[in-house]
Specification:
By secondary structure, this protein is of the alpha+beta class. It has one domain: paralog of FGE (formylglycine-generating enzyme), CATH 3.90.1580.10. Helices cover about 25% and strands about 15% of the residues.
Length: about 260
């Protein structure tokens, strides 16, 4: 019954999206740099780890229902090195490849990219997704540890990650299967910066509608998992954090887009 209720909420979100923007708002879009975006409908979901069925951490709890009240778009892929170079002019990545995700970028670097991208495109607003938006999109209407279920043995069909063997580097985006909402590499390839300041106990006190993280902090939130990570660290609820100035070869990002802003 819980899963049926959740799917009903997701259906309501899809209907709301059509009502807000018509059929055109529900179509994928491509910007001038070739970045593809998929529509994410409003809706409600269970955010955080379900410790009855997954080996989660304390900072992934308490599990709670969260509402995403407004539709938005999210990058179909992580930002690639080709897209980064088109905006920034140089390539900081350790693992070179035009279609590989950009890596070794800090949260502050991502903000510089987004500022230049907004100046160039001048339509809508590009930004990092919040933690809630990221997890809602990763789950894609599901309520299990992974969007494909609770059995991690299926992960290799969807993610470049470090199990059962170490792949040693990033790979071109889109090489594995997408999640049900058309997002590729939401698990694996590189970790993804989120907008929020990280709060270890934020789930216990944050708002239930469109949470954006604590007002201040010393570290920014990171979502997803990376090329060397084992399946335990590739669940939808997994959270990490780091200084906004930290750069590492496991770190990249995915872009959210708000039309009409």
């Amino acid at each position: 019954m819980k899963r049926l209720n959740f799917l009903f909420l997701s259906l309501l979100g899809a209907v709301a999206l059509l009502g807000l923007g018509g059929l055109a708002a529900a179509e994928d879009i491509v910007n001038g740099v070739g970045m593809e975006f998929v529509p994410i409908p409003p809706g409600a979901f269970h955010m955080g780890a379900d410790l009855n069925f997954e080996d989660g951490a304390k900072h992934e709890t308490p599990r709670r229902q969260v509402t995403i009240a407004r539709p938005f778009y999210l990058g179909k892929h992580e930002v690639t090195q080709g897209q980064w170079v088109a905006i920034m002019g140089d390539n900081p990545s350790r693992f070179k490849g035009r279609d590989n995700p950009v890596d070794t970028v800090s949260w502050a670097d991502a903000q510089a990219f987004l500022e230049k991208l907004n100046q160039r495109e001048r339509k809508g607003r590009y930004r990092l997704p919040t933690e809630a938006e990221w997890e809602y999109s990763a789950r894609a209407g599901t309520d299990t540890a992974y969007f494909f279920g609770d059995d991690s043995r299926a992960l290799s069909a969807y993610a470049w990650h470090g199990e059962p063997s170490d792949i040693g580097s990033t790979r071109p985006v889109g090489g594995k299967n997408a999640n049900p909402w058309g997002l590729f590499d939401i698990y694996g390839n590189v970790l993804e910066w989120a907008w929020d300041w990280f709060g270890e106990d934020y789930y216990a006190s944050g708002p239930a509608t469109d949470p954006t993280g604590p007002a201040t902090g010393s570290a920014r939130s990171i979502r997803g998992c990376a090329w060397p990570n084992v399946a335990l660290y590739c669940r939808s609820a997994v959270r990490r954090w780091s200084s906004p100035d930290y750069r590492g070869d496991r770190l990249g990002f995915r872009v959210a887009f708000e039309a009409g802003r």
